[in-house]
Amino acid sequence: MADTPPVRVLLVDDHQVVRRGLRTFLEVQEDIEVVGEASDGEEGIARAEDLRPDVILMDVKMPGTDGIEALRRLRELANPARVLIVTSFTEQRTVVPALRAGAAGYVYKDIDPEALARAIRSVHAGHVLLQPEVAVALLSQEDQSPPPGRSGSLTEREREVLSLIADGRSNREIARALVLSEKTVKTHVSNILMKLDLADRTQAALWAVRHGIAE
To answer: Is the distance from CB of 69 to CB of 48 less than 8 angstroms?
Structure first.
């Protein structure tokens, strides 16, 4: 829609060629605006605080402050930007810590340009980009069975909401699917995070996959 402001994106990657390529493609998208660039995590944090982008497209492995540390510090600063991390297929061991640190999802560095644009829009809309490889990596790294009664403390409705969170649905989509108001969905999400002692919906999605609640 013409009246909808573009998604404001910050690029954080230590390779100038990568940033240039991303900018070149994203600048032709009518609904996406690249508002700045940073060459490492430290600069990315500063630029995110100054520019307040909607979405940060961030590399994981960078010299100095890497993407995971930058994510943790952005969370401490309560920066509202949604972070989409960039990785390669062989870096699964860094993907899960990044998601736990607050990333809204991840994409591969060889992603199709159009798919990247869709991913940015999806993250901006509140979705969690949770792919099967992340769950596999998570399961292979650790065994974290929930304490007795922890998952059982969720109501049936909360389990339904949690399953849809793991499916990448936004609150609006969950409300539509379950015939609820968005306010009610927000209350359910808050209760789920409190009961499971989780920080955000990304961690909730990971938890749901790990414990068999996701469809």
So the answer is: no
CB 84 within 8 A of CB 122: no
Q: Which amino acid is residue 85, in one-letter code?
A: I
Closest CA to 170 of 128, 204, 210, 117: 128
Alpha-helical runs (H) found in 52-112: 67-76, 92-100
The Cα diameter of the chain in Å comes to 52
| Gyration radius of the chain over CA positions | 17
Each of the 215 residues of the chain gets a pLDDT tens digit; together they read 457 899 999 999 999 999 999 999 999 999 999 999 999 999 999 999 999 999 999 998 898 999 999 999 998 898 999 999 887 755 666 777 787 788 888 888 888 888 899 999 989 988 877 655 655 555 555 444 444 445 558 899 999 999 888 877 888 889 999 999 999 999 999 999 898 888 788 778 878 877 778 65
Q: Hey, is 68 helix, strand or coil?
A: helix
Do 120 and 55 contact (CB within 8 A), yes or no? yes
Q: Identify the burial level of 32 via C-beta atoms within 10 angstroms of its C-beta, where 0-12 means exposed, 13-18 middle and 19 or more buried.
A: buried
